[in-house]
Amino acid sequence: MSNTIDLEKAKELLSGFTGQAEQLLANPSTIEGLLQKVERRLKEIPKVGNAASRFPLMLSMIRAYVSKEYTEVSVKAIVTMLCASLYLVMGVDLIPDKTPLVGYADDLAVIAAALYFVEPELNAYSQGRERHQ
Q1: Is the whole model's pTM more than 0.85, yes or no?
Q2: Cα angle at 116 between 110 and 121, to 5 degrees?
Q3: Which DSSP string corresponds to 11-49?
């Protein structure tokens, strides 16, 4: 097995959680618990590049969407972000986290892929937040 994860593989990993993400979205009261687990999990993942550093913004956008403070985002983008969140906390790893040097590669790839797919909407959300501060 290769220790690298490409965008297509990350997209495949994300799509594996679509059903669960849609179920969460149908029951928004369960989302906050997931987001808190993700925040704890992010503390374990080394900050490499831009991917992990922008994930908290994704979590903020999910919260704003669920609370109806920010609804100018597609459901597809929210589902994509929830899929990435689920991947991080479900304990299903392509590369076990304890593997030296590359253990978090799959987690970072999934985060990077989710950011890539929702980047325009995430940027719009970020700019909107800056205007309201």
Answers
A1: no
A2: 120
A3: HHHHHTTHHHHHHHHHSGGGHHHHHHHHHHHHTTS---T
